[in-house]
Amino acid sequence: MSNLIPAVNLAVDPADLVQADRVHTSMYTDPALFDAELEKIFHSTWIWVAHESEIPDAGSYKTTYIGKQPVIVVRDRKKDIHVLLNRCRHRGATVCEHKKGKTNSFVCPYHGWGYALDGSLRGIPHPESYGDCIDKAELPLVSLRTERYAGMIFATFKDDIEPLEDFLGAAKKWMDLFMKQGAGYGIKVPGEHRFRFPGNWKIQLENTTDAYHFPLVHKSFLSSVDEQTLELFDFVKGPGYVEDLGNGHSVMVMIPELIDLEADLDKPIPERFEALAAELRDEGIEEQQVRRIVRAVGGTGFNLNLFPNVACSMAFFRVLQPISVTETEIHHAVITMDGGPAAANRYRLRLHEHFQGPMGFGTPDDSEAWERVQKGANAGEDLWIMLNRGLPGEKPSADGLISDVSAETGMRAAYQQWKKMMAEAQ
Amino acid sequence: MNLNLLNEVTAFIWQEGDMLDHGEYDAWLAQWTAKGTYIIPIDPKQTDHENTLNYAYDDHHMRQLRVQRLIGGESISTSPQPRTVRTLSRFRVLGDDGVNVTVRCAQNLREFRKESLKHYSADLTYTLVRAGGGFQIHRKVISLINSDDTLAGIGYIL
């Protein structure tokens, strides 16, 4: 009677779930779609895994995930970077359980197989039982294709996709602009806030280019800042814009005067930075560099969304990691000036703590809103998520499409890439 | 062991916990020194909190803002406000130089909000300053035992 058992319906065509101005609610709720996303998106494109500064020395490593697969990002003795699957080639145990650290090798705790920093298998305890039926050269930790741009390290399972720089395309110049907040010292990632929310990963992906929510969801944050900052963050009616940069990437410019942190260094120093500027001058830093630091210390005026898992978000890196169709882990990695003045870096740390993290004045309210989206999406399974804001004013730009600052142009860009990747035969 | 001192600091910290569970924030703010710091670190091994990333590193101004955020009704993550009950125990005086008393204790806190009951355990380390026959808080470090794991929003004062 097996012909009476209904087949599990995996026959939804993902292309039918994304229209030009809306996406279907099942995008947030369908476990089969989530599994397909892991395969067709997270295992099929460039995934951000680390910033160079997180693994500064030979032997430095961090562990993370690509989709749900555990990986190690490590520098070998020659300081070359490798992204290795965190799985012993013998019986599958993870070979590293620390978040970050420094080591000479990775040794599996189960039977003691030892791997070098480049993943090559070096040692097998008591090899005699294998006789000649094992070749160590055939059993390294699996090494993924790894490329970098502007200090950001990406890896992919696919050897046949475009080079990273082609994939980033028009986003590259925004990455370069973002890194100017190093004020000439370079960017360092010395820590992060990690949290989870009970909702689909795309809810967070959308949020990075959502200026529309800011004055409402972040009202309590706005009530906690000084007048000048309040003015700066009053951007929804302002001259900012959202631009589709191609390949699912987009940028939301909230504060146009903070696009290029090395421009306008002769303008008066804003009042809220005067104490810091005085402290830097007292340290003997020359005036032009004081101005450069002070202008960079609050971060840029834009959020750059890089499809699918990382954003350069004003003053920090936002990383998302899918856990299940209804759960997502977020990392907000703080940025400091590498070797820069301690006073300026303290300022950046305190700014990050003010908004981000489980006790920040911003993140918990975002989480609450996203959680409600997931909960609400359980109602009306035939309804759609509307993404048509800013469509009437949307125009072609040099890099793609452009519309006003609170347009949903960036979300539409991400979903068009989602549609393209999900529809592709693997 | 100086049991009188142990009793005094225990009574003071119990009172602080009761204030926080019952939303007496003005009284709570008033018992800090002007330069007092409220710290919730991320890395359990870190000792230089000022120059590293924390969940909270609050001076007096930030404590005031935090209280305002909790009671101001503008934040969707704290409306409705979470209910908390904290139990403080295992008090130990780590040091006493005649002015400053350093105390460590255990805190187990239950939080209920909407449909969810959560549990946070932490070591609390206080630097208390003797003042007017009682104490003021000069430093409070909340070391959550799961500080380096993923956390959800904490919409109250630990």
Show the helix and strand layout.
The complex is a heterodimer of chains A (426) and B (158).
Chain A lengths: L17 E2 L2 E3 L1 H4 L1 H12 L4 E5 L8 E7 L2 E7 L5 E5 L14 E3 L3 E2 L6 E2 L5 E3 L19 E7 L2 E5 L7 H5 L2 H8 L8 E11 L3 H7 L6 H4 L1 H4 L4 H6 L8 E6 L2 E5 L20 H9 L4 H10 L5 E5 L3 E4 L2 E9 L2 E11 L4 H14 L7 H14 L7 E3 L8 E2 L4 E4 L4 H15 L3
Antiparallel strand pairs in A: 1-2, 2-20, 3-12, 4-5, 4-7, 5-6, 6-11, 8-9, 9-10, 11-12, 13-19, 14-15, 14-22, 15-16, 16-17, 17-18, 18-19, 21-22
Chain B lengths: L2 H19 L3 H6 L1 E10 L12 E5 L1 H12 L11 E14 L3 E14 L2 E16 L2 E11 L14
Parallel strand pairs in B: 1-6
Antiparallel strand pairs in B: 1-2, 3-4, 4-5, 5-6
What does this structure look like?
Chain A is 26% helix and 26% strand. With 426 residues, chain A is an alpha+beta fold. Chain A folds into two domains: 47-149, Rieske [2Fe-2S] iron-sulphur domain (Rieske Iron-sulfur Protein, 3-layer Sandwich), CATH 2.102.10; 170-423, Naphthalene 1,2-dioxygenase Alpha Subunit, Chain A, domain 1 (Alpha-Beta Complex), CATH 3.90.380.10. In chain A, helix 9 (274-282) packs across helix 10 (287-296). The two termini of chain A are 33 Å apart. Chain B has a single domain (3-144), classed as Nuclear Transport Factor 2, Chain: A. Chain B contains three helices and six strands, in the order H-H-E-E-H-E-E-E-E. Chain B has a six-stranded mixed beta sheet with strand order 2-1-6-5-4-3. In chain B, a hairpin with a 2-residue loop joins strand 4 and strand 5 (116-131). Chain B starts with a helix and ends in a 14-residue tail after the last strand. In chain B, 29% of the residues are buried. Chains A and B meet through strand 13, helix 7, helix 11 and helix 12 of A and strand 2 and helix 3 of B.
Short précis:
With about 425 residues, chain A is of the alpha+beta class. Chain A has helices spanning about 25-30, 30-40, 165-170, 170-180, 200-205, 215, 220, 225-230, 275-280, 285-295, 340-355, 365-375, 410-425, and strands at about 20, 20-25, 45-50, 60-65, 70-75, 80-85, 100, 105, 115, 120-125, 145-150, 150-155, 185-195, 240-245, 250-255, 300-305, 310-315, 315-325, 325-335, 385, 395, 400-405. Classes of the chains: A alpha+beta (about 425), B alpha+beta (about 160).
